What we know:
- This protein has four helices and seven strands.
- The protein is α+β, with helices and mostly antiparallel strands.
- It has two domains: 16-69 and 123-160; 74-116.
- A seven-stranded antiparallel sheet has the order 4-3-2-1-7-6-5.
- A hairpin with a 4-residue loop joins strand 2 (45-57) and strand 3.
- The longest helix is centred in the middle third of the chain and has 16 residues, at 74-89.
- It starts with 15 loop residues before the first helix and ends in an 18-residue tail after the last strand.
Amino acid sequence: MVQAYAERNGTPIRDKNRLLPMLHPGDMLVWEHRFGQDFSGEARAYGGHVQTIQSIDHESGRIVVLQGNMPISGDEGRRRENELRERSRDRSESPRDRARYRQDFDEARNGGHQLRFAPGRRIERSQGLVHSGNLPNGVWGSLDTDRGGQPGHTCLIAAGPPRGAQRPGERNGRGQHT
């Protein structure tokens, strides 16, 4: 799936500071969610996600990423339906927006349940990354909690262009491709 930026011996580079100068728009970041805070690589994985870089500012390190979202749970779906219903009735919204919210609400109630459980219904855009630094083992990631509310962590597995894409050239000292 990803042509990981790697050491000469093939080991993926997973240190944020080393990766930032190598990253380009279109590169993918593959993350894994793990139980506990054992950073030896032995912690059991319980999920993960993939992000695609839309833009990157190499000077500030600011990265904008895109990712498909997860299916919506029943409770979340009902909250979304209620939000759409309320916005369709809100007189501070323009008539055009109220009509659009009403249509979205009707679709959510009449057959939207099929969409609710379909994977990758929409693309989310994030301005910056939740996983903002390196973990104690030097791997890009963040401390968080697992699905049970217990301490866990998310770590980078690989970063690079999609396997089918041509790898961009390296940058020179002025940030230009060579």
